Amino acid sequence: MVSSNTRVIVQGITGKEGSFHAQRMKSYGTKVVAGVTPGRGGTSVSGIPVYDTVQDAFKEHEAEASVIFVPAKFAADAVYEAVDAGLKLVVVITEHIPVLDTARFVKYAKERGVMLIGPNCPGLIAPDRALVGILPPRAFTRGKIGVVSRSGTLTYEVAEMVRNLGQSTVVGIGGDPIIGTDMPTIVKKFEEDPETEKIVVIGEIGGDMEERVAKMKENGEVKKSMVAYIAGMTAPREKRMGHAGAVVYMGIGTFNSKMEAFKRAGIPVARSPYEIPKLLEDRP
Amino acid sequence: MKLYEYEGKQLFRDVGIPVPRGVVTQGPVQWQGKAVVKSQLLEGARGKRGLVKVTDDVNGAIKELKAQGVETFLVEEFVPHRAEVYISAMLDRRSGEPIIVASPEGGIDVEESKNVKLFSIPLERGVRSFDVLNVEKYLGVKGLEKVVKGLYRLITEYEAELAEINPLAVTESGVVALDSKVILEDNALYRHEELVSKFSRQYVADTYVELEGDVGIIGNGAGLTMATMDMVKLEGGEPADFYDVGGGASRERVKECVVKVGGNQKVKKIVINIFGGITRCDEVAAGIVEAMKIVKKPMFVRLVGTNEEEGHKILRENGIKAYADALSAVRDAIRS
């Protein structure tokens, strides 16, 4: 999904989050080639040149990916701009984007073959190669575990626990009800990725992505070992648990339905995040 | 933002969904004949709790319910009907398109019902006559155009995340929404300020969710906070709340959260679980220390990540132990 060759544009680079994380991505070794903030063209952030539009940045630099730190009210515009400019990967860190906006730009990106990750996500990291997002580097070492998660902090927690095994790629897909790239898509990528040996799925209540991942395993579409953790055992129904997507409507995506789906597929589920390393070591 | 039933019905009226004749009141009203007196609360299951009364003595029912602590009532005409159905609209997570959810079994717990059908109506084209026909055929009810179009508008124009009618009554002269459940999307409220002020609501989105137990829970990140609740339960405790301080919380925000959780009478102890990324541990620690001046309950703090050393130092100097892993903090909290 990302490599040491991936060239990245940071949209919203002059903001508080954008400037801090652009600098951090760059020092991690990510090829951050340009930043974009309307009205701030011609300036620079940590030595990264800033342009008014993605188009302008493209005239000077080639790039494949964009990471968006633009505030929620303007984030949809930033996504359309990135897609129209021809970027192939767009990572939306911004949270609190109205879900109708998301529904529309997710569809727009999909129809044009763009891989969109997020919104409301920490981004992704291929340890020692590239960091595109806000994940704290200390938790990651290069290795063979692929991690996909709906939750930011839980991802850091679990990544740090499996540090000795190391990770191939870690993807935080975001906690909103509608997101660009879902869990089954990432799991499929891990299945095809020669570097990934085992897969960790960190889910939570709401929606049916985890159930669909379990089904893929059950159907034999995924051969690699998989372990899972689901947050929200004690969450009451119809109450939103922080994430916009962590809510059960119509009984879809309860803790129990996810647990049962994993059980049917023979995927062990950790009772707490702390059990994940042991479950991974137990798997062939 | 969850709306009261009468607020939801006001929106129903705005988008053309028929509702019973009624009046919102906090005290005695002028009313002739049979009526339904409905307590206006944001929690569900009012019927099961005896908070909805069908009566000829409206003011007597109001008096009785007031004694139970209810403040606001919706008094509505009693609508005789021959059938009840369920119908709602929301966005489908997988397709990203609006769906109409229908069941011929009205008044039911839709989660339990087997007879539920979803009708996808893509944003690009909106509601068409054949959509209405499909829903009408499935429910065996005619005259649903206003209802289907109205619910659809609530999702796509008012940006509700859920618009539900349960039950929709089928009468001799047409359909009537006997109840309303409308939840407006918090993230989109800035585009609908006129609605919030129309309802005279002062609404601030917050992640706090109160639960039944006695162990206060604060975390950063929704997943980590949920995982902390679950660990408390698995270790034999009962979580009293869910409270995500959010990313990059300042000391003021942390203090505010601890004071709120600590202010719950049921809470005997507080577990705080922080993995700092954007969030700085020293800010968190300073916020906790500030809150300790107000909240005199035992706190079990797990604090790792950005500026961990400084955070631990601040806690230590104020006599609080900082745990490196959440499970130990949770275990000590349960055993204390």
Automatic annotation (TrEMBL), chain B:
Alphabetized GO MF terms: ATP binding; metal ion binding; succinate-CoA ligase (ADP-forming) activity
- Give any Gene Ontology cellular component: succinate-CoA ligase complex
Highest taxon of source = Archaea
Give any Pfam family that matches.
Ligase_CoA
- Keyword field: Ligase, Magnesium, Metal-binding, Nucleotide-binding
Residue ranges that the Swiss-Prot or TrEMBL entry lists as coiled coil: none
Can you cite a GO biological process for this protein? Answer: tricarboxylic acid cycle
**Which PROSITE patterns does this entry report, sorted A to Z?**
SUCCINYL_COA_LIG_3
Q: Where is the ATP-citrate synthase/succinyl-CoA ligase C-terminal domain?
A: 220-333
Instruction: Give the protein name, as stated in the record.
Output: Succinate--CoA ligase
Which residues does the UniProt record annotate as the domain ATP-grasp fold succinyl-CoA synthetase-type?
2-169
